[in-house]
Amino acid sequence: MCGIAGLLLFKDSGIDSNILKSLSNSLSDRGPDDFGFLGWSLSAPVQISRNPESLENSRIWLLHRRLSILDLSPAGWQPMGTSDGRYYIVFNGEIYNYLELQTQLKGLGHEFRSHSDTEVLLAAYAHWGVKALNKLVGMFAFAILDTWERTLFLARDFFGIKPLYYTYSQNGLAFASEIKALLKLPGVKRHVNPQRLYDYLHSGLTDYGGETLFADIKQLPPSHFLKVSLDKPQQPQIECYWQLELNQHSDITFAEATEHLRHLFLESVSLHLRSDVPVGAALSGGIDSSAIVMAMRHLQGEQLQLHTFSYIASDPALSEEKWVDRVAEAAAVVVHKVQASPEDLITDFNRLIDLQDEPFGSTSIYAQYRVFQLAKTVGIKVILDGQGADELLGGYRPYLAARLASLLRQGQWGSANQFLQQSAKLPGTSQKKLLLRAVGLLLPPSMQASVRQLVNKDVKPSWLNSDWFTRHGLVPKLYQGKHGEEMLRSQLYYALVETSLPMLLRYEDRNSMTNSIESRVPFLTPTLANFIFSLPEEFMIAGDGTSKAIFRQAMRGIVPDAILDRKDKIGFATPEQQWLKTLRPWVEAVLNSEMATQIPALNLQQVREEFQAILDGRSAFDFCIWRWVNLIRWAERFNVTFED
Fold it and tell me: Cα dihedral angle (167, 24, 162, 277), rounded to 10 degrees?
């Protein structure tokens, strides 16, 4: 796991070596163990060094920061090149099936001088080209320079676990693992993207697709590659190399599917355990993280010294400590716990804003940050985490409404009524909520406005300055209903590619990497995702509303039954409503700050009135509070501009 960056200059204009050092230093948390630079003039031989000052007169630069996980020796140092001098790579990520690929490539005549997955990836690209991408099991963002073809090839993994940003400026093309690195470059503007600003303020939505909250900075979407000619860098080729298979339906029984899912999950966890440094796990006490911890113990037995890291909420209603303790005892782990207070949040808030690059939606991100911080103090460099399971298997409460909508659309009235009656008994939901959400999914867009107002989701809330968005060419849009018979499958797909997972992966990447920890997510492999998406919806959410039904069954005998039989859903939840009482002076100071008055997208007076109404109990708690505060502090920390 590492940090990467690169520059392709349009002409022989040169660049100050101090800028390159600053670019590298901005990624130092991602790779504290080593660093390297590559420079090429496009005519003289490629040069690689730890000192950029020795690589003068270059038109292309590649930068790498190393976090040593596989092959800790100097043989794994980057930038790395092939023996014939044609290909050079900077790589951020892990290829978990690198041993199998190495064996295959050896059979094809390739020789290896290290034990690193980087060298295997480089050889795979040299042999198969872009077709190598679909042979990989892992998380990755990398750049490969082809000196013979005179091209630069960038690629990002299937789900976007690892980030990759790029921008065009007057000097050329630049890319990096984090936005803050690109902002170190001269000429990169900090103007806000109006559409992304609306999406964030209204819905907390970020990170999907190819844009960011900075208008001039793009991200390479998940499962895409970018290829650019060094001679015509203004004309990039961007293509998708993999998509989730939505139209395949397995003709398989529940028992057969359960057995196969168990096999695929254990196989994935086994691959994700490959490391030359100690591996730990994040443990919330929920089904997903518990399954990973118990699978680790199941696969490696007593020989594995297993450390787990858990956030424990101070609010008993949100605390999962009893579940954490039950799993810790069953797996015989060394358990580590951390709590957080609102005072802690204030102390660390600026740090959190800085490391995340873009705003985030709730203070649960802080709880996750503290978990990785704790792991760093223990000396663990690799953590396995359950991210992605809820989006694959229907773990969140709103997916109940999607399943209900499927039954209604398919005319299964009896099953729909039974599902409604049973699901409404689960904690955190009700018949009214389920029906409103289901109807909202089924109605055409022209009729959704009234339903959205019933659940307080107005498209144009009064605290948003609609005139500012209109002046910038944006007309707030209604949620678009999804077509098809299977509403749950559709909702899960959009959660994976747009509404949920992209944000969660960014939060996790920054929170882990700022603590120099590699976070691995064994639920997110193409094989596992395609299999789950081929199953009937009732395998994911059962007729009584039980979420992750097939996975719960697949884990019987490995995970304690008490965990698998849980009906509640908590996650890394912080007591945000309680915290408001303590944080009130701080929030008010932010809302009354000079920066707040400089954000024309907000009706600031209305923002303050809404906040007071929530404090007084006249309005229900709304996460928009954290989005307001986050936006204001983000704009201040990153010197964001809102007008051209």
Answer: 170
pLDDT digits (tens, 9 = 90+) for 360-410: 988 889 999 999 999 999 999 999 999 999 999 999 999 999 999 999 999
Q: In whole angstroms, what is the distance from residue 61 CA to residue 519 CA?
A: 28
- Tell the burial category of 120 from Cβ atoms under 10 Å away from its Cβ (0-12, 13-18, 19+): buried
Residue (of 588, 640, 634, 642) closest to 614 by Cα position: 588
Residue 56 to residues 65, 140, 230, 325: CA-CA distances in angstroms? 20, 29, 18, 57
Model pTM?
A: 0.94
The two counts, helices (H) then strands (E), for the chain are 26, 18
Q: What is the pLDDT of residues 613-629, one digit of tens each?
A: 988 888 888 889 999 99
CB contact at 8 A, 53 and 24:
no
Asked if residue 454 has pLDDT above 60, the reply is no
Which residue is it, tokens 């209900």? 404
Q: What is the DSSP string of 341-363?
A: -HHHHHHHHHHHHHHHSS--S-T
Q: Strand pairing partners for 140?
A: 93
CA distance linking residue 596 with residue 138, whole number of Å: 42
CB 429 within 8 A of CB 399: no
Given the DSSP bridges, would you call strands 307-311 and 518-520 parallel, antiparallel or unpaired? Answer: unpaired
- Helix (H) or strand (E) segment spanning residue 265: helix 254-272
Q: How far apart are CA 207 and CA 501, in angstroms?
A: 9
∠ CA(385), CA(387), CA(390), 5° rounding? 135
Please choose, from the candidates 484, 498, 637, the residue with its C-alpha nearest in 3D space to the C-alpha of residue 159.
498
Reading the block at residue 219, the tokens are: 């991200």
Find out whether 114 and 98 touch, Cβ atoms under 8 Å: no
Radius of gyration for the chain, computed over Cα atoms and rounded to the nearest angstrom: 25
Contact 43, 128 (CB under 8 A): no
CA-CA distance, 409 to 498, in Å (whole number)? 24
**Strand, coil or helix: 416:** helix
β-bridge mates for residue 63, sequence order: 5, 37
The alpha carbon torsion through 222, 227, 230, 234 (nearest 10 deg) reads -70
Q: Flag whether pLDDT at 481 surpasses 50.
A: no
Which region among 98-112, 183-197, 472-486 has the lowest average model confidence (pLDDT)?
Answer: 472-486
Of 442, 417, 444, the C-alpha closest to 431 is 417
Query: 59 with 15: CB under 8 angstroms?
Result: no
Q: CB of 173 within 8 A of CB of 7? A: yes
Question: Rounded to an integer, what distance in angstroms lies between the CA atom of residue 400 and that of residue 540?
Answer: 10
Q: Are 563 and 326 in contact (CB under 8 A)?
A: yes
**613/341 Cα distance (integer angstroms):** 24
- Of 345, 333, 341, the closest CA to residue 315 belongs to 341
CB 213 within 8 A of CB 206: yes
Three-state SS for 2-24 is EEEEEEEECCCCCCCHHHHHHHH
Which of 1-5, 43-47, 119-123, 298-302 has maximum average pLDDT?
A: 119-123
